[in-house]
Amino acid sequence: TRSWNAPTIPISNGPQGDCVTGTVVRVGNLHKHFRSGGETVAVFDGLDLMLESGASLALMGRSGSGKSTLLNVLSGLENWDQGDLQLFGESMSVGDARRWSDLRRQRIATVFQEANLMPAMTLIENVQLRAGLAGRSEIDAQGWLQRLGVGDLANRYPDQVSGGQRQRAALAMAFAMQPELLLADEPTGSLDSHTADDVADVLFEFQREQGCPMILATHDPRLAERCDRIFRLGGEA
Ligand code: ADP
Ligand code: MG
Predict the structure, then answer these.
(1) Which of 19, 36, 106, 146 makes a 20 to 30 Å CA pair with 211?
(2) Does any ligand 1 atom lie closer than 6 A to the CB of residue 29?
(3) Residue 5 DSSP one-character state
(4) Which residues form the ABC transporter domain (predicted)?
(5) What residues pair up with 52 in beta bridges, in sequence order?
(6) What is the pLDDT of residue 212?
């Protein structure tokens, strides 16, 4: 039997010892365009970005400024036209499907808007699965759900909870895999302001205690201000 439910206390676990030091993300001179209809839309035209170990970065910018596209590029889900991308000190290119999927399984947690839960599994099974795929078998899935305020919904299926509750379960999945980089797209976007504050508290506790670097795309200035740095896309924002 698998022992996914070892009684560890999440958050206060302390550093797991596998956090990389130095620069986690380095983007240099990134160019990216989309073609829609007959038109070419340049989303990035020479973007430079760095994320140091243990740091948090907020991506801000109006709708359509490229926040989601950048997170997709950083997780290997979207290609780019030109520029250098290094993750954990290694150069990445679009064709490295195997390396990208290894990174996403084990080292990079992505919490995107269409919360990526498996519909045929309960919330707690989703957390267990996610952590198990990342090789973290000794996790307290119930504890993570509890910490995110959805512990009493652990045995429900994703379609039996609200969008905001799915979002919180998705964050529990991300934390339980103990990633070395967390990428989150509007992690509090579907939450009321009180719940958003609670979830932000958990996010920053996690970041502080695990030393996990993170990039958060957000419209919420209160969330952005809690990050070490704010990076604005698309000129004004
Ligand atoms: P944000 O997340 O900041 O709202 P996005 O990254 O979603 O912005 O979009 C950036 C720009 O790229 C927008 O102009 C959007 O219309 C365009 N875009 C995004 N995805 C696609 C796509 N798959 N095909 C064509 N255009 C796209
Ligand atoms: Mg977006």
Answers:
(1) 146
(2) no
(3) T
(4) 25-237
(5) 23
(6) 93
As for the ipTM of the complex, it is: 0.98
Count, in order, helices (H) and strands (E) of the chain. Answer: 7, 9
Strand order in the sheet with 23-36: 39-52, 23-36, 82-87, 90-92
Give yes or no for residue 69 CB within 6 A of ligand 1.
yes
CA distance 100 to 48: 21
CA of 195 to the centre of ligand 2 (A): 21
Per-residue DSSP letter, 21: P
pLDDT score for 228: 96
Report which ligand 1 atom has the smallest distance to the Cα of 234.
3
Distances (CA, A) of 22 to 27, 86, 101: 14, 12, 23
Question: Which of ligand 1's atoms lies nearest the C-alpha of 70?
Answer: 6
Residue ranges of the chain whose pLDDT lies below 50: 1-20, 237
